[in-house]
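Posting for a labmate who doesn't have an account.
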Amino acid sequence: MTPVPLAVSGSTSAAYSSTVVRLAVAPILLASFTCTWAIAKPFGGPFALSDYLLAVSLLITVPMVILGRLPFAIPGWIFIPGFVIPVCVLARQLDPAVHSWRVLRVQIQEDSRDSFQMAMIWLAALYVVPLAIIAAAAIERRVVDWVMGAYVAGVVVSCVVATTDMLRLTRIASVLNHHREVTNPLDYRWGERQAGLSDHPNMLGMVCVIALPIVVYFMSQRRWTWFSGVAFIAVYGGLLASGSRGAQAISLLTVLVAVLCLPTKRTALRTLSVSILIMIMAGAVLLSTVLAQYRNWFLRFTGGGEPNEAQSSNENRLGLLEQAWSDFQRYPLFGAGIRHIGEAHNLYLQLLAADGVVLAAGVLAYFFCILRDCWDLSNRGVVLARFLLISIGTWLVLGMLQNQLVDRELYFTVGCVAALVATGTPRHVKTADP
């Protein structure tokens, strides 16, 4: 059961000065800004820059919340995965699946993690990100808006990198990624598709469509209208560079739904119309001139960059779907092991194949509660909540074609929902001119 948010007044905690508060929330804002930059690893190893910033944020804000006795209440749904994931991992440890290993298309060969490691990665995303945002929001109520603003800004930077790399003006992603592709080079190559600062073009497409509703939300606010218009163009540049067919297709519906959900639409529609016009004109010029030779890599609905490239991708995905369904039929209760959670290119079949109906039921209940709280918050006047609902809903719909589930950058929207519930933010966020 979700706790009833506490009644609060003001936005900044009276327990600390405004300077201390801003310094305390800076790490979570920087973490949000850099969370989609998976290849930005300043110290090498498996940890990205945002992972270190999340750890710093928790080390600063959690003691401040405790010492300052700041009110908050963690939503109950946050504990669901913490129960079902360990249960499924333990079940498979006690009763290992026979011959569960298979070639992984979407991971590097030397990076085939076992079920325990994969569970730890997923649990870190499920808990570190939301708890860091909750703790920061308990200190400063406006952090939720700021986190989403920083998230969009980080996606925009990644999209700009993807676009300039696509135009061959830069080679930023290639240099940061040590001139190698993250996917298995023996099975599938990206070709001319770009990933920006993400670790895969499909992940870039995913974070773009997650960010789009938030861009529309900020577009309706007079202070950020034209900045959001530029961000909108940049995000669509990233979507084009990614060559992700699913993300490109669903982005149109996502923007339409986001616009329809605006309380008043005058300011946003004006900016959106100008942004779309510029985007279409620039795209048409680039695709017919400097990108003409590589156009099929970015608009892969017509067959892909090489003969039968998109068809080959479809066949590979069908093979993975069939294998996942076979795994589920063989191990219906606890699945073949959580190490297979990212393989089927369908979130729901991945859940069934990896840990059976137990994990699938738990995760679906988790997301149902999140969407329900978004709806409740929206009905109570928290306008940002309806755009978080659209972002998370877009992720879940696109998940029927994608495999992104355990990555930390996906859970910042979830963390913002948890923070709105936990801190009882009752304020109505004005999103339009009077």
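Reply:
Got it, the structure tokens are right above this. The chain has one domain: 18-423.
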